[in-house]
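Hi Q.,

Before the meeting this afternoon, I wanted you to have the zinc ion prediction in hand. No need to reply - just skim if you have a minute. The sequence and ligand are here:
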Amino acid sequence: MSDIAALDKTVSPSDKFREFLSTKRKKFTREREIILEEVFSDHEHFDTDQLVLRLSGRNDGKQVSRATVYRTLGAMEQAGLLRKVARPNGREVWEHDYGYPQHDHMVCDKCGELFEFHNEEISSLIEKIASAQGFLKTSHRLEVYGTCDPCRRPKKRRNRKLDLI
Ligand SMILES: [Zn+2]
Ligand SMILES: [Zn+2]
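Predicted structure with the ligand bound:
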């Protein structure tokens, strides 16, 4: 869940991935292309099994194996296209790192929803703390755990049809 706008990408994710793969002397195979297209078709956070499921629903006859999905996501992480974000039950989900601005997450312990936010003060504070330690920061990851607004509301009682008789 996010209202953070995506940045303009001057180099497309597929060009960036192709470039990365060529430095590793690997080919941008049709399988890798299919996975990349599916991943960048929307910005929602996803876990690897969900992606495998989405890919298996394709009906163009091209099947991508689970192992290929795992390996390709790992390569996309190395290429700076994806990053991992933790979730409450220990499961890790992926999100776009490329073409998407720095942001942090609030994680609901009840429903597992991720809420994105960006705050300049937090960023500059981390910057200050790091430089005071002589630490050269490359990135940061901040997760705030708790209960989201909808989960905090008391559940409405459904009007059961039987009650009306
Ligand atoms: Zn919730
Ligand atoms: Zn996010």
